[in-house]
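Hey,

The postdoc asked me to send both predictions to you directly instead of through the lab channel. I've kept everything plain text so nothing gets mangled by the mail client. Protein one:
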Amino acid sequence: MLKKLSHIILALLVLVTTVGMTVSAHYCGGELKSVQLFQASASCCGAACDSCHNEIIKVKIEDDFSISTFTVDFTAYPIALPALIQLFQDSINTEEVEQIAYCKPPPLKIQRVLSDLQVYRL
């Protein structure tokens, strides 16, 4: 449950920061009087006074989440290519490999229980 909740919170955080959010704060006499999301804060006084001011903070990620590109210089690869081919040829052995069982398999009853506990995905 906690895992699902943390995923939801992180998804909302990413959504809010990519879409953007505006926070408006109203100060009167240097003291914070009100905070509004997505709209401008209303003045505490009926008329404009010198001690009141609003601060607007815009929260938005300016990244476009695009994959950066890179180029590969293939001039150094002709030197390493024969060594890689030889390495792959050595690792692929065409001889028949003898399989050795180092331990006995579990009894049939345990095999049945283990096969019931497993999930087979096709």
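Protein two:
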Amino acid sequence: LKMETLESELTCPICLELFEDPLLLPCAHSLCFNCAHRILVSHCSGTKPLESVSAFQCPTCRYVITLNQRGLEGLKRNVTLQNIIDRFQKASVSGPNSPSESRRPRPYSATVTGIMSAEQRVACQFCEQEPPREAVKTCVTCEVSYCDRCLRATHPNKKPFTSHRLLEPVADAHLRGLACLEHENEKVNMYCVVDDQLICALCKLVGRHREHQVTSLSDRFDKLKQTLENNLTNLVKRNSELENQMAKLIQICQQVEVNTAMHEAKLVEECDELVEIIRQRKQVIAVKIKESKVMKLRKLAQQIANCRQCLERSSALITQAEQSLKENDHARFLQTARNVAERVAMATASSQVLIPDVNLNEAFDNFALDFSREKKILEGLDYLTAPNPPSIRDELCTASHDTITVHWTSEDEFSVTSYELQYTIYTGQTNFISKYFLSTLHCLYNSVDSWMIVPNIKQNHYTVHGLQSGTRYIFFVKAINQAGSRNSEPARLKTNSQPFKLDPKTAHKKLRLSNDCLTMEKDESSLKKSHTPERFSGTGSYGAAGNVFIDSGCHYWEVLLGACTWYAVGVAYKSAPKNEWNGKNSSSWVFSRCNNNFLVRHNGKEMLVEASLQLRRLGVLLDYDNNALSFYDAMNSQHLHTFDISFLLPVAPTFMIWNKSVMILSGLPVPDFVDCPEQQDGGCRQQDSPYSSGLKGCN
């Protein structure tokens, strides 16, 4: 080995001097005892003693070295290395303490130093003189080349400069990273994926990277370059977005300044107007007070003058009376005092004559000032805010079969400019409504296009016309002023069922309709009726249909049965046969009573149903949108049966009787106990459809 190469192997990586009292680390590297001590000292803090440091990293391979209780004394001395150093020092021309050998760095690599010719000498990058001196070392950490003088000035043998790595002068910066950190005479030619580090072939063969995943430099170069390019593109894009955002923010700041100035000017203007109004009212009230003062003083002056006149007359009378009392002669006294006594008696008896009516009221009762209400209003002066949400009063809302009148109240009615009513058909997509979901109402119930809006309502109620019969709607009210608007809690309101009557054109010729076509009764002696295709005509098919066909909504009607014990009530398509009982075909569905038996019938199949013989009021619920036809004992709120039907066509209410009479009640609101849209999953609908095996064929 050359002396220079041998010296690099004997140099401490910390102090860059030949090893002195070297310690053999568990990772097989060596370190000066004093350098190891300085590493431990660097890990100490103001409150942490040196003895508490129990581990440090090898400066060469970063292996963590754990110390025992003896600390550095517990590490073995590298005696072999110390002997080699001693022999090297004896054989060396210059000792290790020679100034020219002080802080001798490890050479860069034989390949790099070999290519440095005289024409490629590197100039010092730190010299201030011109031309700069020739560089003797290149600091990899600083990435600067130094001459000997500048190197000693900038890299004293103290932390943190002791950890800087010095190489032979390198002309091209891209050559600095070619030397392996662990094997300095080897060039890096692969990449360790685990440690994210450039390594040489020896590192993979015998070093700590031998078990690690490695890749070629070209592969890593392509990946890293692509990643960098992508990140750079994203960064440039982000910078562009930030610039645009910043420009918008600057514009907003400018607009904030403009708006602030405008609002401040508006505030001053409004306050000046208030002050001017107060000043004018102050002048008006002051004038009234002065006028009242003048009037009061004029009246008081007149009263004072009257009192003075009375006082003068009274004083003259008193003087005259006193003169009379001084007369001692009886005759003279009687002659002169008689007239005076009469005048004094009259003045004493009638005090009103001598004392005028004097009003001494100095108060201004008609000018009581109480500005407490105005003061409270002035104390509450602030920017206008959006009104509080109105509240829909369900108990005040009313409905018919095609209208709903919505009533609401508002706490801030005086600050509301107008109201806006929005409504749509309730689709049943959610079972609860909460104020926390108002922002997503349109998503929960229907699309935005299906909402109807009634703007600029000045009253706290509104009637919506043209609604579907027997349909549930979602309503909410928006209170609006210049500051904004707020929505009420949504309310679910429903129109009543479609009203209908019995259609005389469909009634069997042996049925008589009365009570405005709401009552039908069996009448064998009825008049002749012309035959029409829609009239029930079969023997024993004593029926009639309603005068409406229903194709949407939820409708409820009731049948007052009275003493009738043989009937059939249900719905049917227009195409249902008119010459046979309802329920014997696929176009009709009925609930029937045959004396003491109750049953449901469809498509020629029937099934017995439990019901009270005292059933006098039969409720029928047609929920067309949910494909259901239900029957109820309306008096006892008892569910009797539900057909599950996939409606294909509009249906009409149908009625058949074989004795007595029945009466129809239509256009009713759907009672809560049969309100199936909210209870479909709660047991309202039975699964005993007429298609099940429980139905038997009709006899």
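Summary for protein two, as requested: The radius of gyration is 57 Å.

Thanks,
C.
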